[in-house]
Amino acid sequence: MQKIRPALELVREELGVEHALASRRLYTDGAELLYEVSDHLDGEERIEPRKVIVLRNGQYVFREVVERYMKQISYDSDGVAGYANRVLLPGWEVADIAVKPDVNFGQPYFVHNGTPLSLIEDALTEGVPCEEAAAAQGLPEDQVAEVDYYLHLAG
Questions:
Q1: Domain of life of the organism in this record (predicted)?
Q2: pTM value?
Q3: Which of 24, 87, 113, 126 would suit a FRET pair with 132, their CA atoms being 20 to 30 Å apart?
Q4: What is the CA radius of gyration of the chain?
């Protein structure tokens, strides 16, 4: 939080983005907050490619490296300042799990059909076999098996 608060204030004050954490132009590399900037000339955007900077110190970073991770986030169609409206959760190799504010009250769900992740977790915790839990919710069995695997790891 020591690095995040000053960076958010910078975005809010100098760049005019009120909800920076949900902005299409905000990225993270896990340790630093990054922000996409465009070169402007008299209010018109130049042809040059946009750049990404580290907010804390203003250093430029390689845009391609950051974009690889940002493909997991979908944004609304509200122009350049569009906000995140769906995030595919990282860490899942098989299951496609996402969060979206207007689906399941923002709780994680299976992209396949919208089944809440908690519904499958509860069934597996109660001892329902993966095959049955998957069939009951119309989910691919391998996705439910991955949830079961992580539940057993968590212990």
A1: Bacteria
A2: 0.57
A3: 87
A4: 20
